[in-house]
Amino acid sequence: MEDYKYLFKIVLIGDAGVGKTCLVRRFTQGLFPPGQAATIGVDFMIKTVEIDGERVKLQIWDTAGQEKFRSITQSYYRAANALILVYDVCSQATFDSLPQWISDIESFAKHKVLAYLVGNKIDQINSREVPSYIGKQWADRFEMRFLETSAKDAENVDILFYDIAMELTKDAREKDKLESDCTGFNISPNTKTINRCTACFKF
Amino acid sequence: MGSYIGMGQNDKQSRWGAYNGLGQNDKQSKWGHTLEWDKMISCQDGAIHWPGQNDKQSKWGHTLEWDKMISSCCGCCAALKPRYKRLVDNIFPVNPEDGLVKNNMDKLTFYALSAPEKLDRIGQYLAQRLSRDVQRHRYGMVVIAMDALDQLLVSCHDYSLNLFVESFLKMVQKLLECDDVELQILATSSFIKFANIEEVTPSYHRRYDFFISKFSSMCHSNNSDETCKARIRTAGLKGLQGVVRKTVSDDLQVNIWEAIHMDKIVPSLLYNMHDQGFVQVDLDNHRNEEAPAFVAETVFRDLVCRASFGNIKSVLKPVLVHIDNHQLWCQATLQFVVKCFKIIMFSVQQQYAYIVIQVLMTHLDSHVRSSPDIKSSIVDVLFECVLIAAGGSIGPSVLDVFNNLVRHLRISLDNKSTDVDKRTMEKKFEEAIISTIGEFANNLPDYQKIEIMMFIMAKFPQFTSEEEFGGKMDAQLQTMLLKTLLKVATKYKTVSMANAFPPEFLHPLLRMSLLDDPGMRIIVQQILHTLIDRNDNTPKFKHVVITKDISKLGLKLQKSARQDSLFMKKNGSEFYGCLLENMQMDSNKVDNFEALYCTMALICVEMGCTEILLELIRFALELQNIAINKLSLPLTHKCAIHALTSGFLNLLAQLAEVKSLATYVSGVIEIRRQEASHLLPDVAFNRANKPSSYPEVETLKDTWLFQQSQIAEILTELGHDVSRLSKPFTYRVFSSLLGGIDAEDSTLEKDEEERRRKEILQTFQTAPFEEIVARSESKSNHFHNKLNEILEMVSKHPDSPGSLRNTNKTTVPVFDIQFPELYVY
Prior knowledge:
- The structure holds two protein chains of two kinds.
- Chain A is an alpha/beta fold.
- Helices cover 41% and strands 23% of the residues of chain A.
- Chain A has one domain (6-202): Rossmann fold (3-Layer(aba) Sandwich), CATH 3.40.50.
- Chain A has helices spanning 20-29, 70-77, 92-96, 98-108, 132-141, 157-182, 189-202; strands at 6-14, 42-51, 54-63, 82-88, 114-120, 145-148.
- In chain A, strand 5 (114-120), helix 5 and strand 6 form a beta-alpha-beta unit.
- Among the domains of chain B are: 1-48; 497-767, no CATH class; 779-823, no CATH class.
- Classes of the chains: A alpha/beta, B mainly alpha.
- Chain A binds chain B through residues 1, 3, 37-46, 59, 61, 64, 67-72, 74-76, 78-79, 189-190, 192-194, 196-197, 199-203, and chain B through 1-4, 46-48, 69-70, 73-74, 124, 127-128, 131, 135, 166-167, 170, 177, 179, 209-210, 213-214, 216-217, 219-222, 224, 259-261, 263-264, 267-268, 271, 318, 321-322, 325-327.
């Protein structure tokens, strides 16, 4: 019945208007919504991708950047397997508020969460304010992965999410191996039954 | 297959039993092949060969692929499927628009009921079909599958639901993950149906995290279509309610009260309650019951009333954080916050109401440095909450609550802003605190109110050792504290004076009535008024007037209790002394005199003037003496005191119903009216007075004054013992007690000396011989007593028995003998 092997929760955070929703939309629906309204609270999208022949379901929680929703969005950090911290390469201000976001991650997210720093809107070459190398330095300092994207041109968007999915799958597999050495109880019994059931017809 | 077959074997026995029983019914033919099916299972072979069966499954529900797969797999017909699968397949119509096949659904239900152990597999199969339909966007079928799931849920018994619920929830989640709005709403409504089922059997392995997250996210839907937005939000809200319902009563479930969940649920509810887009909802209109704002409110109430002692804080914290984050403390949205807290107060279990107040107080603490309008909003909300919580509002830490509020008052005064606008806001905050303190006090039993007043008095800067505050700050703080006191005092319902004025409260209060600031003195008098006045007579004594017939005033009189007159006998002198001191204050204004008059009149009315008549008259005469003898007083003050005395005596004589006295008083008043109207209230208390209203030369004729001797005569005729009338008042005690008027002491002392000299002079000039004798006698008695006291002390000394004998003879040698002995120490 389960149509996926792993389920990962990804949460996007960052200042208002850096293009979090557009990134998600681009990835899940393949479109760039012009004039996207500000997100309220939290938005939710789902996308199943295939990693090494296995279906991996990504639950993507797209949070509002506005300050006033901070408390509700923070409550979503905890469950996240991966966090994508987005800033706008055309706005120094959104880059400057990164330390605040980092400290939020430290205080609300799981200890070893996969964190990605993403500079969005690289399609606007002329109004760029934050050079690539500075973002990279920054990401290195906080042991985050780094990527620059453009939701508009679909640049690096898929790479971003696939990379996360891949990384998380790798981790999950290692964990599975560890666990199966001990108990072998990584998938719920129900799932097994069904697999066999379908298998019985294939027989 | 392992687990599947194992299960089949385990269940076989019971299934047999069930089917045998059924077999006797007329359904025999229908159920007959179950037997064969079970045999088939026991073959334990993956490839099941089922004997020919004339079933119609293939026509009904199967998709092309499915059929293809089956045929490719086993080259056999669809009939090979187990019975439950066929039953499930049968419920689906060929055409999704036809809806659920009712007949077949009944069959499925019946099967599920009679074979509950199959239920989980039915659920799995349904779920499997459903997820396939979702993927293929065959939403008609999805709706039907959900309908079937719902029906099975409702009709099946609780104990068999456990595993079925697993697949049910998976389905709901699956639908919630879809982009399609309709499916999300459908899933939510199914979930709500599920939430309404009361399960008795505990279940260990359910997780609602996703549901909470998703429903919260739905609550914040920003769909471009307004109606659609409202529907999604409503669905989200109801879904949250369902989760709360499901988890709150079940200890095995996730603890819904944990911050991680509450931080999602509470803001979602509040956001919908105040979201601008939905504000114009007419709550009386029943058509709007589905409006998010309305639903959110209902869910919020539901949540709050489920919260227990340990949990209520986890609801309140996100509420306050939300209000902070959305900056709702400002004036424009304060109404919403108040409404919110009213909801909380009305919904929360009564015994926990005080926690709400406690939390608000703590929140106020955390906003100590915030702008005054935020603080005053918090206090306003606090005030409303206290109103609702009534008796239980304070909780166990009464003094703590008051201490906190007074502290905030003080902090606000200490950090006074110079900006005018800001200062007005601060003042508003201060006023809000005061009325909140009053409201708190209102809910306390009376004896505690007195305690609270004493507590507040102890906060007066001059009574504490802290001297670093500037004088001006002191004054403001004192005024605020006095206002607070007044507020508390107005809430106090006096029954007996002795209870209202325990000595440890009365003394400091009277001391406070002698503060420097005339405005503050008025407040103290007002406190006295409200505490003394039991019959709401205060308004009638607001102005000093001479009423010919006091029955016109419409006073409410009550026979005073004996204990009140006893109280006055004990404490009267303190009252009088304090009032006399007050009269002599240079800074007095018209209002002060009026307030003092009111206090006097109230004492008359409340304490039983017949019993203490003599004392009151003595007091009135002393008052007159002050006006005559205290030269340093300005003329206006003297006139005011005279006028006040006349008004007071007029009232007193009529209240005590002493006709002869009343006649005498009105006689004097009449003379004054003709010859010296400036000694009557009409002139003396006329606020429009100019210096020219008063006579240029200060003269006093005896006929204008109330003569002690004549009053004594009248009273003697009535059988009173007038000997005390002539005794001087010993109210001096007060000024020595008072630290606050140190500054005035020098002038006061001068005045005092002068007054005393004049007094003595006058006494010896005018008083009858007996009185002088009595006076000097009392004086010498006093001296004698003092002497005796000293001697007694000395006599207690074991080493001085000899000296004792000597002292009995003469006084002078005593010291001669004693000095050397004293030096021994």
